[in-house]
Amino acid sequence: MNMNKLALLFLAAAVAGCAAQGDGPATATSKAAEKPAAKVEAPFASTYKAYPGTATAIRNVTIYDGEGGRIDNGVVLMSGGKISGIGGPDMAIPDNMLVVDGRGKFVTPGIIDIHSHLGDYPTPSVEAHDDGNEATSPTTPEVWAEHSVWPQDPGFSRALTNGGITSLQILPGSANLMGGRSVVLKNVYSRTVQGMKFPGAPYGLKMACGENPKRVYGSKGRMPSTRMGNLAVNRQTWIKAQEYKKKRDSGKEFTRDLGMETLAGVLDGDILIQNHCYRADEMAIVLDMAKEFGYKVTAFHHAVESYKIADLLRDNGVCSAVWADWWGFKMEAYDAIPENAAILHNSGACVIIHSDDENQIQRLNQEAAKAQADGRRMGFKISDADVITWLTYNPAKALGIADKTGSLKPGKMADVVLWNGNPLSVYSRPDKVWIDGAMMYDAANPRLRPVSDFELGQPGEGDVK
If 0-12 CB within 10 Å is exposed, 13-18 middle and 19+ buried, where does residue 326 land? Predict the structure, then answer.
């Protein structure tokens, strides 16, 4: 397919969706009937299908493979929506491939944001669009973030074009101790959230500790109003979840409960815990609570005091999804330091740079560079290739999708960004972005500048924001 036809396909998709994408929940399959009666097949299945792509070779580029490797004057091959090869300047390029000469440019895997609220808090930011917090009960594991996602949020395309974001996790807000299920999306244009859902990605459960839940519910004169109240409500809820799971697993008839289904899924190991938490002492307590009830915390989010317990997080295999230097906007954020990410990395703990913001998602590469610079000023030797892992492989690992994306390995999804310079420079930005081998953005081609439905007909339509 030539570039003009491909561009027209993308433009048509922005207006009316792509025919390859589904419009509603997938119908039940025969596999559902084969599962034990006690287990419930998750509805709202992904209908994602990759956009059509062209077999492509990118040559003469500096490659950061996403797992700490660097290749100079390298070659990346993409075909069939997958990475088909990666190597040095002597790597053979098949005759049937479109060749992109990236001389002077850099290639990385697609950037992954593990903490986003795009679609649930879309732009324009008005009260009618505030759909991220079900702030009516301190525990709402029954709600699913995807049921609030507006696929036409202009923030998705801005994250793609300005930040090279190819996958992202949409989370409920942090008003509740248990805020509900998260969803992992491919950053493509679709009329439905099912058409964006990352196929095979596990669900997450958003939990929150600290100031937010106790402030929200203490102000309503109800529990929790203290940190000890936070833990008490959490523990009591996990006890109920254990009882529910026992009934479910007994094979006897039981009444479905949407919230308990989510929590039982966590106890099964099928749903990952993504835990909003700032203070080191609280993170340590949450780890003890997780051991009490037999689940694992996958990542602490924001985690401005992770540096205080870097060894504890490393030994428990818990990632820290952090900012470079946000601090001081509330008491639990006051003991943040800009060297947080670097200390974690130097200790052997898992580091992720996240956004939690519709603007910062457009420059995670710059945020990672700031964190690297702060570490270097401490005397830590942190290579550029290692910093890229904070944006690619590590978030993929914490989302349970590292076998599919997050690094440039043959057989993985061809989620690739070609940068016009070193991605850790403030002067660099995406030149081209591929998702599953389909070129979704090209800075040199105005027809491949995405437009959300909300922006159609507005001045500047199609401009890179």
Answer: middle
Amino acid 40: pLDDT = 54
DSSP for 382-396, please give it: --HHHHHHTTTHHHH
Burial class of residue 441 in the structure, from the number of CB atoms within 10 Å of its CB (0-12 exposed, 13-18 middle, 19+ buried): buried
Which residues lie closer than 8 Å to 342 by C-beta, 6 or more apart? 371, 372, 374, 375, 376, 378, 380, 382
Q: How far is CA 409 from CA 70, 151, 402, in A?
A: 13, 29, 11
| The dihedral sign for the CA sequence 359, 365, 366, 367 | positive
Residues 184, 354: Cα–Cα separation, whole Å = 14
| Integer angstrom CA distances of residue 437 from 43, 82, 85, 440 | 28, 6, 13, 9
pLDDT of residue 14: 41
Q: Is 265 helix (H, G, I), strand (E, B) or coil?
A: helix
pLDDT at 223: 98
* pLDDT for res 456: 78
Token pair in block for residue 218: 């203490």
Q: Name residue 72's amino acid.
A: D
Q: Which residues contact 376 (CB under 8 A, 6 or more apart)?
A: 342, 382
Cα–Cα distance measured from residue 66 to residue 195, given in angstroms and rounded to the nearest whole number: 26
Candidates 224, 202, 228; CA nearest to 213 is: 224
> What number of helices (H) and strands (E) belong to the chain?
12, 16
Strand partners, 77: 57, 85
Give dist(CA 291, CA 148) in Å, integer.
Answer: 32
Q: Contact, 21 vs 47, CB < 8 A?
A: yes
**H-helix or E-strand spanning residue 322:** strand 319-322
**Average pLDDT of adjacent 10-residue blocks, the chain of 465 residues:** 43 39 38 44 90 97 98 98 98 97 98 98 89 97 98 94 97 98 97 97 98 98 98 98 98 96 98 98 98 98 98 98 97 98 98 97 98 97 98 98 98 98 97 98 89 77 67
What pLDDT, on a 0 to 100 scale, did the predictor assign at position 227?
A: 98
How far is C-alpha 446 from the chain's CA centre? 27
